[in-house]
């Protein structure tokens, strides 16, 4: 059954609906994520994952329902809610001609982080991701995997409580996908809540919980092991395919 938003949730959706003309993209979605929890939003292409992220990042407003971040209603207090969110979008949003540092400095300025504090945070983030020596290079010179690392560094500079990852491994080779996933999984130690949207079952297998979304509805949620057991399947991939019938979600 879908998770019911609770008092200890750092990110919650309650009965969220969104339509584009006659097409209902989200049909009363509810879920809750707690501090330090890694939740995989698993669904085939067209399931409604991107629509959910558009609502969570304030790009669009929900038609009905409630979204709360750190206790703030995103509809009523969008600035306070969005200040607690870091995002890595599916499509890159870096300026390819600016240096890595310049891209990150722009982000710190947007969040009111200036001077020495901005430099300290940028240096620490890049060092943690193994990019300290690439700081002054243009983003265009980096590989796809390293560009994603820069976006992950940027998403953490304002020290958000919630990290949203929207199909972040699209276009990456297997080694880069694995490295990015490991970096984000490690954030649980710092109490960061992560919502990782994907259509690849292998990326959901290490999540604390998996939320299966299809055609705008939450079909099931639970630990990977509980979903496999409930479906009487041999693997999470088999359980997922049994629920949705979409073969494109099998491991790549």
UniProtKB/TrEMBL annotation:
<comment type="similarity">
    <text>Belongs to the ABC transporter superfamily.</text>
</comment>
<keyword id="KW-0067">ATP-binding</keyword>
<dbReference type="GO" id="GO:0005524">
    <property type="term" value="F:ATP binding"/>
</dbReference>
<dbReference type="InterPro" id="IPR050763">
    <property type="entry name" value="ABC_transporter_ATP-binding"/>
</dbReference>
<feature type="domain" description="ABC transporter">
    <location>
        <begin position="11"/>
        <end position="240"/>
    </location>
</feature>
<dbReference type="InterPro" id="IPR022467">
    <property type="entry name" value="ABC_transprt_ATP-bd_su_PQQ"/>
</dbReference>
<keyword id="KW-1003">Cell membrane</keyword>
<keyword id="KW-0547">Nucleotide-binding</keyword>
<protein>
    <submittedName>
        <fullName>ABC transporter ATP-binding protein</fullName>
    </submittedName>
</protein>
<keyword id="KW-0472">Membrane</keyword>
<dbReference type="InterPro" id="IPR003593">
    <property type="entry name" value="AAA+_ATPase"/>
</dbReference>
<dbReference type="InterPro" id="IPR027417">
    <property type="entry name" value="P-loop_NTPase"/>
</dbReference>
<keyword id="KW-0536">Nodulation</keyword>
<keyword id="KW-0813">Transport</keyword>
<dbReference type="InterPro" id="IPR003439">
    <property type="entry name" value="ABC_transporter-like_ATP-bd"/>
</dbReference>
<dbReference type="Pfam" id="PF00005">
    <property type="entry name" value="ABC_tran"/>
</dbReference>
């Amino acid at each position: 059954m879908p998770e019911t938003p609770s008092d200890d949730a750092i990110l919650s959706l309650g009965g969220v609906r969104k339509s584009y003309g006659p097409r209902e993209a989200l049909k009363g979605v509810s879920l809750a994520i707690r501090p330090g929890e890694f939740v995989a939003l698993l669904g085939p292409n067209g399931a409604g994952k991107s629509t959910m992220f558009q609502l969570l990042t304030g790009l669009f407003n929900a038609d009905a329902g409630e979204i709360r971040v750190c206790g703030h209603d995103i509809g009523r207090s969008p600035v306070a809610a969005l200040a607690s969110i870091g995002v890595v979008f599916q499509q890159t949003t870096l300026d390819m001609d600016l240096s890595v540092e310049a891209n990150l400095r722009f982000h710190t300025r947007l969040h009111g982080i200036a001077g020495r504090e901005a430099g300290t945070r940028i240096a620490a983030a890049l060092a943690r991701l193994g990019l300290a020596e690439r700081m002054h290079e243009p983003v265009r010179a980096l590989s796809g995997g390293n560009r994603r690392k820069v976006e992950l560094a940027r998403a953490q500079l304002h020290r958000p409580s919630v990290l949203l990852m929207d199909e972040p491994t699209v276009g990456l080779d297997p080694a880069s996908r694995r490295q990015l996933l490991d970096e984000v999984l490690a954030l649980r130690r710092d109490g960061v809540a992560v919502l990782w949207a994907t259509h690849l079952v292998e990326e959901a297998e290490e999540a604390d919980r998996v939320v299966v979304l299809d055609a705008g509805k939450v079909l099931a949620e639970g630990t990977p092991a509980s979903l496999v057991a409930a479906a009487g399947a041999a693997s999470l991939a088999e359980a997922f395919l049994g629920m949705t019938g979409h073969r494109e979600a099998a491991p790549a």
